[in-house]
Structure formats: structure tokens, C-alpha cells
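Render this sequence as a predicted structure.
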Amino acid sequence: MPEYEITTVDSFTTKRYAGNPCGVVTHAEGLAPEQMQAVAREMNLSETAFVTPSQAADVRVRFFTPRKEIPLAGHPTIATMHALVEEGRFELGGEPRRITQELNVGVLPVDLSRREEGCVRVAMTQATPEFHQELDREAFADVLGIETPDLLAGAPPQVVSTGTRQAMIPVRSLAVLERVSPDLARLAELETAEGYFSTHVFALETHDPANRVHSRHFGPSSGVWEDPVTGSATGGMAAYLWRHGLVREASYTVEQGHIMGRPGHVEVEVEGEGDTPTTVRIAGTAVTVLRGTITV
């Protein structure tokens, strides 16, 4: 039976056992999608990434949660590019380097650079923001275990996509965010009924005043009860914040994972015209924690 090298990388952190862990198979040639899904289920992390050759980009990357494939993912992109640089696939000198990855949503650029401390900064451009249906405030407050007035006034819960459809649920304070205790079975039903992938809850208050937003993320329909630090949803959240006039800054940092004991930080860059966000990028660093092989 064939064996494949697999690496576990913690994303959005420079410290091991913080941020968000991701499994990465950098040479996944020969694996069928059902085998990739089986490996992801065995790893039981929020996502596992699989890299194969591409005729349209520098690499083809597919992302799987323990239950399903996801079209675009943030922390696995950070982890994957970190792993590829470590194994020498992409060499970095003193200047930033742009490469491309082919995802299920198309070909998107990734910018790689070295920070002074030597770690690799990975900046991912996400798909053009799309804004979908607004969601019932009362229903989502109830399923999150909070009251309707705990939601941020004047900011409708809404499904947003920068490559993956996710629900954006702003709450009025960090204290409310810390109290969120979702009914995961009912939340999974809502995710399926409303046709989106996962649920992102956030507040415009932070533990560290240097950061702009604190967030939490839940994806029970895909087998992710709570995700420590989420890149794709941070991109969708940044688009939402711009669209609704809540944050119009060109760059800032989001904190997540502190409530789970896995703190991490996502760098955000947004470009827009009026109320319309046109380009969203998320960036971060990563650290490798495990290398081994898996038999398929």
C-alpha cells in the first residue's frame, strides 16, 4: 500500500501548538478524492490540504474537512505554502515572490516573503466578494445561545463569500462573543438549509487594542465544532465590515482562538470603491509541528 508524506503545520502563529493546525500532503499525486477525504477524516483537523501538479498554476491545492471538500480555505493556504517553502519547492530570496494556486474557485495569487525573524509570510488573495441572503436575527441569536439584542444593532447577519459561502454574525461586544454557546446540531441544520458552509461570529472589541476584531468560527455541518483561527471567513468578514461601513481601514489585524487556548492573528488587507469591497487579502505565518507518513 502506498505511503504519503504528511506534515502538520500550525497557521496564523509563530508558536507551536497555537493558531490553527492543518495537515498538508505536498505530493498527493495518485490520490483519488475519496482517499483525500478518508485521510482528512483520519487527521480530524479542521482541514487537510493536498497538493498536486497544475497546468493552470504553480500548484493545484484541494482542501478537505473531516466531512467534505471546501472550495477555498485560508489557514490551509498559509500552512501549504509554508510547507512548500520548507521543502524547497518555492525558493525565497530577499524579494517577495508571487506564485499561483489552482483551487476549486479558480486560479488565485499568493505572495510569499521572508520576515526579519526568518519566518515565511504568506499573503493570500481571495475571490471577489459576493453578498448573498440576509439571515433571521432572532433565529441565529437563539441557536448561538444569546439574545437578539446581543447582536450588533444595524448590522444584519448575512451570507458572504470570498470563495466559500459563510454566515457573518456580528455581536455587540467581546463579552457577548465569549458567552456564545451554539446548539451545534441546530446550527448544522441552519447551515444546510441556508446553503452556506460555516458560521463566523465576531465583535469589534479585542483582547489586544492593537487588533481590530475578535472572532469565533463554527462549522458543525462539515465536522468542525469550533475552528481556532479561520482565514477564509476572516476574508469574508473583512468584506462584510467594509460593505456595511463598520471597518473601512485598508489594513488591520484580527485575533481569534484565544477562547480555545490557541491564539492566532490574521493580517487583513482590503481595497474598495465606495461601499463595494473589490479585493480582500489575508496573511499570516506558520510553524511546522509534525512530519511523518500516512498509508493509503
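Summary. The two ends are 6 Å apart (CA to CA). DSSP finds six helices and 18 strands in the chain.
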